[in-house]
């Protein structure tokens, strides 16, 4: 696979031969990588009917193909059978892939036509038929361009160019890659990487304005929350008044209950009086035997009627008091329910506002976290967020990498300020990309034309294999860059790279602008390794050599004088041991 380094655009479209093929192929890979990341490719997703079905055997698929009615279903089943037979019988896979390709063409389905053509080429690859493989790869590229399938174009162009190189036809390989590059150049609307970078800066400025607007919205929401707090205090006052009203109603209820109790006592007294009257009447009945029976009965009837009238009046009065009491209780319940409903609405509105505000705050927090994690290691950034400061740490075995460009001042005098900054930016961005492909390497800073990074910033012992490999890749990138500049007759950069392993102290300094940095004699010795290095070489100390000597082929340099350190053993790293 190609390395996706950031290099200047090739200005000569007439390259040929091995150098031209390698340059165009490398730039094609870089251009497609940038194109896929920074531009939105036209949506051309192939949705296969077969992908939604459960796994089936070859026999089941062939039976379904015999009974298939629509051309679309036949196309899908032929494609599935081609995939299934690819691992077992390449010739059968080719036949089914060709059938699927023909059906796709008939239905104007460019996406399936390109996929089935690529599948047929894989079958010819298994039968080692290079001529037919190239024919079907060419067909796959043509239909993939119609379907705007960037991934398949890249994959197919890579395979075709490999076939051409295998056949020692480098001119054809160059032409294949150049055609794909022209296609992607047209799709990117003729924009260069610098224009894309300018667009990114514009978008970044717009995001900053959006951030300020969000902060203003946040302040407005805080004012709204303050208003809601006042509303909450008012509700508390209303609740206090409601509680006092409830107490008043309870007192009134108690008064009514006392009046009812008194009326019940009066009723009991009347009942007692009635009982005494009955007793007296009975006694009189026995005492006045001489009176006529009719007169006695008339007297008793009159007494009973009077008693009944009194009882009815008492019951009526008692019912009236109970009605009053129930009415008062009902009014209290309605008032309480209405106030609770108002409180529910206010609480719901407040919850929505708080939820929206919390969402905005969380988004801003994530943006600030991402920015902080790009400036310093994740663990240090987390500690800085939690405590407001980061504790300095000592690492017993860190490996420091220093780079410096040869004759930088002389080259800077030959270039305009814009061209100089652009060249430095291209080189440092390439270095950033290289160390991002290796685990455990942290970029510390750039100092003028010097680049400083380190590995092993952990508490346990590590082997600096990754950072030494990164140093070799940096020199490899600069060598390719140098050859391109020589071809164009332009000045170029050559770098010295030095590495040393030892203890360092790391921490965060600054108040408003935080900076993560490392200190110690190990950093100074790494700088001395770089000073005693020849351009285009990777110079390591004896300590670093002892840790990586089984991973890399190294050339001993013997004892070399070092400023303020005396004589030190040094080694040039040549290549990795496979």
Write the layout of secondary structure elements.
Layout: H1 17-38, H2 58-67, H3 71-86, H4 90-106, H5 110-126, H6 130-147, H7 150-166, H8 170-187, H9 193-287, H10 293-375, H11 378-387, E1 393-405, H12 408-414, H13 417-436, E2 441-447, E3 450-455, H14 465-488, E4 495-509, E5 515-519, H15 521-531, E6 538-541, H16 542-548, E7 552-562, E8 566-576
Parallel strand pairs: 4-6
Antiparallel strand pairs: 1-3, 1-4, 2-3, 4-5, 6-8, 7-8
Helix pairs in contact: 1-8, 2-3, 3-4, 3-5, 4-5, 5-6, 6-7, 7-8, 9-10, 13-14
What does this structure look like?
This protein has 578 residues and is α+β, with helices and mostly antiparallel strands. The protein folds into three domains: 17-198, Alpha Horseshoe (Serine Threonine Protein Phosphatase 5, Tetratricopeptide repeat); 212-360; 391-576, Alpha-Beta Plaits (2-Layer Sandwich). Helices cover 68% and strands 12% of the residues. It has 16 helices and eight strands. The chain has helices at residues 17-38, 58-67, 71-86, 90-106, 110-126, 130-147, 150-166, 170-187, 193-287, 293-375, 378-387, 408-414, 417-436, 465-488, 521-531, 542-548; strands at 393-405, 441-447, 450-455, 495-509, 515-519, 538-541, 552-562, 566-576. Strands 1, 2, 3, 4, 5, 6, 7 and 8 form an eight-stranded mixed beta sheet that branches. Helix 2 (58-67) runs antiparallel to helix 3, helix 5 (110-126) runs antiparallel to helix 6 (130-147) and helix 7 runs antiparallel to helix 8 (170-187). The protein is elongated.
């Amino acid at each position: 696979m190609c390395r996706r380094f950031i290099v200047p655009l090739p200005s000569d479209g007439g390259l040929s031969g091995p150098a031209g093929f390698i340059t165009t192929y490398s730039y094609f890979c870089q251009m497609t990588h940038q194109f896929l990341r920074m531009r939105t490719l036209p949506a051309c997703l192939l949705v296969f009917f077969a992908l939604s079905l459960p796994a089936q055997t070859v026999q089941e698929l062939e039976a379904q193909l015999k009974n298939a009615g629509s051309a679309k279903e036949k196309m899908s089943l032929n494609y599935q059978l081609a995939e299934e037979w690819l691992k077992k019988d390449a010739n059968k896979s080719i036949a089914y892939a060709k059938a699927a390709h023909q059906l796709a063409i008939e239905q104007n389905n460019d996406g399936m036509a390109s996929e089935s053509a690529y599948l047929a080429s894989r079958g010819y690859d298994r039968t080692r038929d290079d001529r037919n493989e190239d024919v079907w790869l060419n067909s796959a590229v043509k239909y993939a361009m119609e379907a705007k399938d960037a991934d398949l174009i890249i994959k197919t162009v890579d395979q075709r160019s490999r076939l051409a190189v295998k056949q020692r036809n480098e001119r054809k390989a160059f032409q294949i890659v150049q055609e794909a590059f022209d296609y992607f150049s047209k799709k990117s609307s003729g924009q260069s990487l610098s224009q894309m970078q300018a667009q990114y800066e514009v978008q970044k400025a717009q995001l900053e304005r959006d951030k300020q607007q969000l902060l203003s919205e946040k302040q407005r929401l805080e004012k709204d929350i303050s208003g809601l707090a006042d509303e909450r205090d008012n509700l508390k006052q209303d609740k206090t008044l409601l509680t006092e009203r409830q107490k008043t109603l309870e007192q009134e209820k108690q008064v009514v209950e006392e009046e009812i109790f008194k009326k019940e006592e009066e009723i009991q007294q009347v009942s007692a009086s009635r009982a005494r009257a009955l007793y007296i009447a009975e006694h009189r009945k026995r005492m006045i035997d001489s009176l006529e029976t009719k007169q006695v009965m008339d007297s008793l009837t009159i007494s009973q009627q009077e008693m009944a009238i009194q009882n009815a009046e008492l019951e009526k009065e008692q019912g009236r008091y109970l009605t009053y009491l129930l009415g008062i209780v009902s009014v209290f319940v309605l008032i309480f329910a209405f106030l609770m409903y108002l409180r529910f609405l206010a609480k719901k509105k407040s919850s929505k506002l708080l939820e929206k505000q919390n969402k905005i705050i969380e988004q801003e927090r994530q943006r600030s976290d991402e920015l902080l994690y790009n400036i310093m290691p994740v663990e240090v950034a987390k500690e800085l967020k939690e405590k407001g400061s980061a504790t300095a740490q000592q690492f017993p075995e860190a490996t420091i990498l220093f780079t410096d460009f040869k004759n930088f001042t002389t080259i800077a005098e030959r270039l305009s300020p814009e061209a100089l900054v652009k060249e430095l930016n291209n080189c440092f961005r390439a270095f950033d990309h290289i160390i991002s492909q290796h685990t455990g390497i942290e970029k510390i800073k750039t100092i003028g034309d010097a680049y400083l990074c380190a590995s092993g910033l952990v508490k346990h012992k590590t082997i600096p294999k990754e950072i030494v490999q990164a140093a070799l890749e940096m020199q490899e990138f600069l060598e390719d860059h140098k050859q391109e500049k020589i071809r164009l007759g332009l000045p170029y950069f050559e770098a010295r790279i030095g590495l040393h392993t030892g203890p360092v102290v790391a921490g965060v300094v600054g108040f408003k602008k935080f900076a993560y940095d490392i200190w110690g004699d190990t950093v100074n010795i790494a700088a001395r390794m770089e000073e005693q290095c020849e351009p285009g070489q990777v110079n390591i100390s004896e300590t670093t050599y002892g840790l990586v000597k089984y991973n890399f082929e190294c050339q001993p340099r013997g004892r070399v004088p070092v400023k303020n350190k005396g004589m030190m053993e040094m080694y040039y790293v040549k290549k990795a041991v496979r």
